């Protein structure tokens, strides 16, 4: 019986596909971190600096904006962590 098909066993191909998927997820995570998260953090820092010169009546509003930005950054970091975590327990039914 002769073996037909690609030069590599199917397991190697599956591993290569999974490795490529994870590399793509890592790239997306890096892009989010280096782009959006850094921009949001810079906005928070700029807001904190401007708060120093703002009238006291605006402080509660600025605090609310800073809290909202902080929440968005935390959500993005969670998404990035999930992207970078290999799918160890993913169902094989999911495509």
How would a crystallographer describe the biggest sheet?
Answer: none
Q: What is the total tally of β strands?
A: 0
| Overall morphology | rod-shaped
Gyration radius, to the nearest Å? 22 Å
CA-CA gap between termini:
33 Å
Structural classification: mainly alpha
Low-confidence stretches: 91-95
Number of helices: 2
Percent of residues in beta strands? under 5%
Oligomer: single chain
Average predicted confidence as pLDDT: 84
Q: SSE order, as H and E?
A: HH
Count of spatially separate domains: 1
Share of helical residues: over 70%
Kindly describe this structure.
The protein has one domain. It has helices at 10-53, 59-84. The protein contains two helices and no strands. The two termini are 33 Å apart. It is mainly α. 74% of the residues lie in helices and 0% in strands.
